[in-house]
Design brief:
Layout: H1 12-20, H2 55-62, H3 67-84, H4 87-96, H5 106-120, H6 124-132, H7 145-161, H8 165-176, H9 181-195, H10 201-205, H11 214-227, H12 233-246, H13 258-261, H14 263-269, E1 273-278, H15 285-304, E2 311-316, H16 322-331, E3 336-338, H17 343-351, E4 359-361, E5 374-376, H18 381-394, E6 399-405, H19 408-423, E7 427-434, H20 440-447, H21 450-464, E8 480-484, H22 487-499, E9 507-509, H23 520-523, E10 530-533, H24 535-538, H25 542-550, H26 559-572, H27 575-579, E11 585-586, E12 591-594, E13 600-603, E14 605-610, E15 613-616
Parallel strand pairs: 1-2, 1-3, 3-4, 4-5, 6-7, 6-8, 8-9, 9-10
Antiparallel strand pairs: 10-14, 11-12, 12-13, 14-15
């Protein structure tokens, strides 16, 4: 009887030996001289298989494996966790992984995860150093498609975190070609988020070197449409339609970002009646009238541009009882309410439930959160202090001298500055409030320790008994001055710094230092100061020119209320977008975004005074701005 010998692990060595002897065994042995007795098939040992998509199984197997194999399995597990978004587990694994055991392209994969971990730790420069030592992922043939997607994503994130936004966009665009349709929608959102951060996108898109990069140029042109202020929703929608006709094959053409893709919906559902609840008399009457006039100026600009506009109903809230005015406005058919202005009145409406129509309040309660049915739009001094700290720190400043007027608003600005600056890792070396302009020179001298330098010189003269020539020296542990002061006081600061040997210290100031004056005789001593301010002040528009022609007081301290009124006009029809996480409306008071607490957050612009006029910092030629003094972190 001829018997087939099963192929099993138990017989593997025997078969190998027979094969080596040249017997040419196949599946069955031929007839033997002596019959082989039958016996039961041996039990075949089951070799456990590892699910390559199960990081838990991979780590379990790694604990039993030899060191080289263990490192490979641990890295595979980290890659799976990365795909699942469990970044804490990734960091835990790669922190303990024996990198020297990795072979082939695994060190490349490890470096990608390491860079991502450094980025999450707030160390973007260190992350970029890791990536810069790697070959371009496009030319590493051993990487899988998933590896390439991850490489492009991490490179894009790290580049964006280091301010290399156009390079980050290129990575997202390359990544798009590796993705399925569903994943491309997510990648488009990431690309758009990075594109929105590109300053002066129109100028960037127009560069000759981008002629061969149509997808990139298309993204930047779309950003320009999103960042531009149009007089009406219809005007912006027309710009989007023209863009789609020009870029019909672009990834965003059929998948527009929500802020632009929802424009037809906003046009169809826009409010037909808007109620303004403002104090038009009494102590807040001037502010209320300026808000109303700014709102109506934007309203008529929309009409002039061919856009539709709602019926405006105005209610004077100077007499109090804002809830009664709200109910009256709703009874008269209002689809949205803009106002009130007084903080107490806003608190009253926050507590008033239920609200039948949404509210765009023109102040902040200062502590009470609200939902999307009542959005708090306030010009909060703390916003300026935070942005002063962020800008100075981004410019490499680490050690600050703080000077501020002894007024409530200035104290609030600089308190928020100090808190944010310290949070970012900076140090406030000294803080000097001053009560009057005449005290600035003395405050500067004391802050720079000039008197101590002079005292040391006097002591040396006495010791040496000679008329020692001496030039006072200021302290050297300061990088810049942060200031919150009105124009008159601000104009005394630069001469005081120069007089006390500190004219090279950059100065960062709040918006209050510039009141819109164009008189060179008045603003000369402000030249070179960087300051945060509303676009209304530093980026003139046709609407601002019209408003200032009709109401000259709009050039002075009332400017912020006119700008706020104009922004309220544009926002009243965009409330659904704000509630859905719109990336930001380019308002005249700043770029406006809705926070989870129901408050609009303002991102202001930056300018520097040059020849008495404000010039936006991003378009300022480098030689015109005072040199920055970078220090070690």
């Amino acid at each position: 009887m001829t018997t087939c010998i099963p192929r099993s692990l138990a017989l593997a060595s025997t078969l190998a030996a027979l094969a080596a002897a040249g017997l040419g065994l196949t599946g069955c042995a031929g007839p033997a001289t002596e019959p082989v007795p039958e016996r039961p098939d041996p039990v075949v040992a089951e070799v456990p298989t590892i699910d390559p998509d199960d990081p838990v199984a991979l780590l379990r197997e790694a604990r039993r494996a030899a060191p080289d194999r263990a490192a490979e399995l641990e890295l595979r597990a980290a890659m799976r966790y990365e795909q699942q978004g469990e970044h804490d587990r990734v960091s835990e694994i790669i922190s303990a992984l024996d990198v020297d055991r990795l072979r082939g392209s695994d060190p490349h994969r490890f470096a990608l995860l390491d860079a991502r971990m450094l980025l999450d730790e707030g160390r973007p420069q260190a992350a970029w150093l890791v990536l810069s030592e790697l070959p371009d992922w496009r030319y590493v043939s051993e990487l899988s498609n998933d590896d390439r997607q991850l490489a492009a994503l991490i490179r894009a994130r790290v580049l964006a975190a280091n301010g290399r936004l156009v390079s980050a966009l290129r990575e997202y665009i390359l990544r798009d070609s590796l993705l399925t349709n569903a994943d491309r929608e997510v990648n488009n959102r990431l690309t758009w988020k990075a594109a929105l951060r590109v300053d002066q996108a129109a100028q960037v898109a127009a560069r000759p070197e981008f002629a061969s990069e149509p997808v990139l140029r298309g993204w930047l042109e779309l950003v320009t449409i999103a960042h531009s202020r149009y007089p009406s929703l219809e005007a912006q929608q027309q710009a989007v339609i023209l863009w789609q006709r020009r870029w019909e094959d672009h990834p965003a053409a059929l998948d527009l970002p929500p802020a632009l893709g929802r424009l037809p919906e906003l046009i169809a559902l826009r409010p037909s009646r808007v109620a303004l609840l403002l104090p038009l008399s009494g102590p807040m009457g001037s502010a209320g009238n300026a808000l109303r006039d700014g709102f109506m100026a934007a309203h008529f600009a929309a009409l002039a541009a061919g856009g539709a506009a709602p019926i405006i109903m105005v209610f004077d809230t100077a007499g109090g009882d804002v809830t009664r005015h709200y109910i009256e406005a709703v009874d008269q058919g209002a689809d949205v309410v803009v106002g009130p202005l007084a903080r107490d009145a806003v608190r009253d409406l926050v507590m008033f439930q239920p609200r039948d129509v949404p509210v765009l309040a023109l102040n902040s309660t200062g502590g009470m959160d609200s939902d999307a049915s009542l959005i708090q739009f306030g010009l909060i001094p703390e916003d300026e202090g935070i942005q002063m700290a962020q800008r100075a720190h981004a410019d490499g400043m680490r050690r600050a001298l703080v000077l501020n007027a002894q007024e409530a608003w200035a104290e609030r600005v600089m308190a928020s500055f100090e808190a944010k600056f310290v949070e970012l890792g900076g140090t406030v070396v000294e803080r000097r409030p001053f009560a009057a302009t005449a005290q600035i020179t003395q405050s500067v001298a004391e802050s720079l320790l000039i008197s101590e330098s002079e005292a040391r010189a006097g002591q040396m003269r006495r010791v040496l008994a000679s008329n020692l020539e001496f030039e006072p020296r200021r302290r050297q542990d300061l990088d810049f001055v942060a200031m919150a002061a009105e124009p008159v006081s601000a104009r005394a600061l630069k001469p005081a710094l120069a007089y006390h040997f500190a004219g090279d210290l950059p100065v960062y100031a709040s918006s209050h230092m510039y009141d819109g004056s164009t008189d060179r005789r008045v603003t000369a001593d402000l030249d070179g100061i960087r300051f945060v301010n509303m676009p209304w002040r530093i980026a003139p528009t046709a609407l601002r020119n019209d408003v200032e022609s009709a109401w000259p007081e709009a050039m002075g301290n009332a400017a912020s209320f006119y700008a706020m009124g104009a922004d309220a006009w544009h926002l009243h029809a965009r409330l659904p977008l704000l509630a859905d996480g719109d990336p930001g409306f380019p308002g005249l008071t700043g770029t406006l975004r809705l926070g989870a607490d129901g408050r609009l957050k303002r991102e202001l612009g930056w300018a520097v005074l040059h020849n008495g006029l404000p010039v936006r910092l991003e378009v300022m030629a480098a030689p015109l701005a005072a040199p920055l003094r970078r220090t070690s972190p």
